[in-house]
Design a protein that fits this description.
The chain is α/β, with parallel strands linked by helices and about 375 residues long. It folds into 2 domains: about 230 residues, Type I PLP-dependent aspartate aminotransferase-like (Major domain) (Aspartate Aminotransferase, domain 2); about 130 residues, Aspartate Aminotransferase, domain 1 (Alpha-Beta Complex). The chain contains 14 helices and 13 strands. Helix 4 links the parallel strand 2 and strand 3. Helix 1 packs antiparallel against helix 9 and helix 3 runs parallel beside helix 4. The longest helix has 24 residues. The radius of gyration is 21 Å and the shape is globular. The model has no long low-confidence stretch (mean pLDDT about 95).
Length: about 375
């Protein structure tokens, strides 16, 4: 069986986790957490990075740092995971969904300005499949209307826009290190903070509302409760697992890109015949091969292809159900403008196996089965 996903494992994870236990510090902000922080701050060109227990919690921290309040509005795509909206809904905000671009599946930057009102506080972009949104336009709108920008970069570790790492462009960037991502700690994430002035408050919120981080640095002689917060820092055991992959990040990234290119090459003929559509990567974007997807004619054909592949031991899945079409989305949000592409394109999209254990032979087999289906 070629599974749709398998958790990443390089071989050093257990060794590093054992080291953490031997150092007698398995709670948060230990040796491996610091190594992960330093690596991401350098590679992502970010003044401050904090590991979190999930990308969901990184988004929640961003909403807290922005002081999102009841009545505020946050603009985002409907084609995203629930966490993108949850973080702001939990603060009482209303989410305003706008349509996506059919080429990248990202929020259509040309529709954002019309959705801005006097209640708009932030724009939350989501870089689908590790391919960047049109950030120059979005950051220009944010400056024009004095809005914050949060990047849901859950799928975008190692991706770039015009040479700039995703997650480091907006006010806050949020990564995921879930087991389905290119680099994993089981459950985990990270918050990237653009303004160093916000570092201390972020540390306080992450450490249950205390100044414990300053205490560990020797900046105060005791730590106390100073503001609201929660427990958003992961165990150093999780960070040790992640570090085993981050130190091989370039190797992992190159290998995934190679597999992505094989998919694209092997399926190009079907695309030229008009039977499927392949992913589009704009010229200014460097993606990380987080996923490879195709688009079928419609939802019926997609369902048939999923079943066909499953019978031939290939795991292939569809992705998000647009948030504005489900119960919570109708309760907490509103779709601004016309849904020209969000629903239609989401019903066509089919994700193929892409993880660190996929082999070239696996990819060739999957492509052959897809060709068989269309023959």
């Amino acid at each position: 069986m070629i599974h749709f996903n398998e958790p990443p494992f390089t071989g050093k994870e257990f060794e590093y986790m054992r080291q953490t236990v031997e150092q007698a510090h398995i709670c948060g902000d230990g040796y491996f957490t610091k190594k992960c922080h330093a690596w991401m701050e350098e590679r992502m060109q970010s003044p401050k990075v904090l590991l979190t227990t999930s990308c969901t919690h990184a988004l929640e921290m961003a909403a807290l740092l922005l002081e999102i309040r009841p009545g505020d509005e946050v603009i985002m795509p409907s084609y995203t995971f629930a966490s993108t909206a949850d973080a702001f809904v939990m603060r009482g905000a209303r989410v305003v969904f706008v349509d996506i671009r059919p080429d990248t599946m990202n929020m259509d930057e040309t529709l954002i300005e019309d959705a801005i009102t006097e209640r708009t506080r932030a724009i939350c972009v989501m870089h689908y499949a590790g391919v960047a949104c049109e950030m120059d336009t979005i950051m220009g709108l944010a400056k024009k209307y004095s809005l914050a920008v949060v990047e849901d970069a859950a799928q975008a570790v190692m991706s770039r826009y015009k040479g700039i790492p995703l997650g480091s462009i907006g006010d806050y960037g949020c990564f995921s290190f879930h087991e389905t991502k290119n680099y994993s700690m089981g459950e985990g994430g990270a918050l990237l903070i653009r303004a160093i002035a916000n570092r201390e408050r972020a540390e306080i919120i992450r450490e249950k509302g205390t100044d414990r981080s300053k205490f560990w640095r020797g900046e105060v002689d005791k730590y106390t409760w100073v503001e609201f917060g929660s427990s958003y820092l992961p165990s150093d055991l999780n960070a040790a697992y992640l570090w085993a992959q981050l130190e091989l990040a370039d190797e992992i990234n190159d290998r995934r890109l190679e597999l992505w290119k094989i998919y694209a090459r092997e399926l190009q003929a079907l695309a030229e015949e008009g039977k499927i559509q392949l992913p589009f990567v704009p010229r200014d974007c460097e993606h990380n091969a987080h996923m490879f997807y195709i688009k079928t004619a419609d939802i019926g054909q997609r369902s048939e292809l999923i079943s066909y592949l499953k019978e031939r031991k290939v795991g292939a899945v569809f992705h998000y159900i647009p948030l504005h079409t489900v119960a919570a989305g109708k309760k907490y949000g509103v779709f601004h403008g016309e849904d020209r592409y969000t629903t239609r394109e989401s019903e066509r999209l089919l994700r193929l196996p892409m993880h660190n254990n996929v082999t070239k032979e696996n990819v060739l087999y999957v492509c052959e089965k897809i060709r068989e289906f269309y023959r």
